[in-house]
Fold this protein.
Amino acid sequence: MAALDRMVERVQKAWPNVPVFKAYTSKAIRGRMVRAGEQADSVSEALQRLLDQGTKRVAVQSLHMIPGSEFHDLLPLASKFMLQENGFERVEVGFPLLAGEEDIEQVAQAILSVLPTHRKAREAVLLMGHGTLHPGNVYYEGLHDCIQQLDPDVFVGALEAEPGIEAIRDKLMQRGVEKAFLLPFLFGAGHHASKDMVGKSGHTWKSVLEKIGISCEAVLKGAGEYDALAAIWLAHLDEAMKRLERR
Ligand code: CO
């Protein structure tokens, strides 16, 4: 929520005359929010609400890290709301953080610019991505390869795909790493960061590394909280807003 609130503030600042609404692609998150008594629209519900209020044009900005299934599901949804009878004049979907070769380079540079400044030589950094079976997973690999060329002690791994923590642990061992910084490569530092990255169970990334004597320091901040990364999402929103103006 800290990451999302920051992002909404930035969008409101960049587009002061455009109303901003939040919607959630994750069913699990919506369920949890509704149980906590909060409003949590799906993208479809939010679009329907806007349509009912007479909105003509809408940009849907993805806040996903990579173009996986949640992002790709937005594309036919946007088309449906645009092409249906009495639909919107135009619906444009803005790209997620990593959506092309240029983004990979920019994201790599942005990450290197926000790493803990007290990190010493030979101390590793591990970015924990979510990972997916969708072909979009290739973006985590692309980012890993790009960032390795800039700093060979920075690794990108995935929680639910390859490379997982075991593969990365072996690489850190080979390099004789003694300390690693753990950063979520997730929009927000939520459930996965607290449960799977640093939680108390023996399967968290922290426990796996500590078991072989690598000390860990976690930075529990989501990608959406860093201005350097947010700027890339905002640039994608700019592009979507430009496409929105087409007749
Ligand atoms: Co998950």
Summary: Residues 130, 192 surround cobalt (II) ion (CB under 6 Å).
